[in-house]
Request: fold
Amino acid sequence: MKKIALITGITGQDGSYLAELLLNKGYVVHGVKRRSSMFNTQRIDHIFENLKLQNKRFFLHFGDLIDSSNIIRLISEIRPNEIYNLAAMSHVKVSFEIPEYVANTDAIGTLRILEAIRILGLEKKTRIYQASTSELYGNNMQIPLNEESQFYPNSPYAVAKLYSYWIMINYRKAYNIFAANGILFNHESPRRGETFVTRKITIGIAKILYGLNDKLYLGNLDAVRDWGHAKDYVDAMWRILQHKNPQDWVIATGLSYSIREFLIACLKKVGLILGFRGKGLNEIGYVISSKNENYKHLVGKEIINVSEKYFRPSDVNKLVGDASKARQKLDWKPKSSFDDLVEEMITHDMQMIEKKYFKK
Ligand code: NAP
Ligand code: F7E
Reply:
């Protein structure tokens, strides 16, 4: 019998990579997509275009985590062996603007799925993975952070995700459901949403290099993150649900870089050396030199500015994870390095901008 998986948030970055991974492992994959006035399946269209899988092992259903009856109906029809709850309003800064909606989706949404499992009597059949996050730690400075570290959530997003983290543990204990949290540190890819900082940078730089924009405006350049590749992280999600019992797991690379260092690394890939001068809102990033003939005109130009608009009411300054437990017990380790990630993202976005604006 093929295993059946249900992925909420299948149209997102992680959902798309996870769908590919599970299909390659022979699963039947069902995904929940939201109704939208525009197409919202770009990240998974290539799966549908693969005729071998169409209507056989890959199915999409309309749904929303704020609709209990929809969730109950889908789970009762699909009767999945594994549920990956990846759906969420995942943008930390936006969560300050729509906190009530975020609580409804990112906190109560998880409860709705757990209740569906219980109402339908699927406690023994269905395992559930919850997309927990390093944002739970907030500004806990006891770095590196592991499964024992204290949580100090610092945004409506993080507070909602903390509810989900604990309700998973509660349902595990109270009802013996295989409910596991993956506490994932930041993970990126060419499929990352365009307003998260890494993708904003790779697209922004590509536009500057192609002469479409003069500058890129960013917020807190001092923030430090532990960035991995989303492909490696969805593999960890799968391993978490295959473990002999449900537990909570930190998934991270253990290495960290500031936003400033991410910028420098991206520009280095295209032959430019970036320098910084000034402080706070007056800090400026400028091109010191270019090894690439095509970009010599940028030498001396100020291409990075800081704007108050992109700061958060409260930010998380530094996140670095310790994934020793996953390395030992799940035999998981990241395959992509920081350098590989930067290379893949900047190359992808240079090609994307060229195709979009210059190829007829
Ligand atoms: P993403 O690209 O923003 O994808 C989020 C997905 O959730 C999208 O498919 C989105 O649908 C869907 N969604 C949003 N609200 C929904 C609702 N009310 N009902 C149903 N679906 C809804 O996020 P991601 O980077 O793939 O992250 C996946 C999960 O991991 C999220 O829960 C995120 O919070 C968490 N996480 C991410 C990271 C990271 O670094 N990427 C780290 C730790 C945890 P649309 O496409 O229609 O918007
Ligand atoms: O910000 C700073 C910003 O939006 C990273 C989500 O997937 O990972 C993600 O949350 C840092 C922050 O990701 C800009 O202030 C500077 O300190 O890329 P981000 P995030 O907030 O870390 C966690 C683990 C999740 O769970 C979330 O779902 O970069 N920053 N300038 C900026 N950030 C953005 N977005 N835009 C800027 O212009």
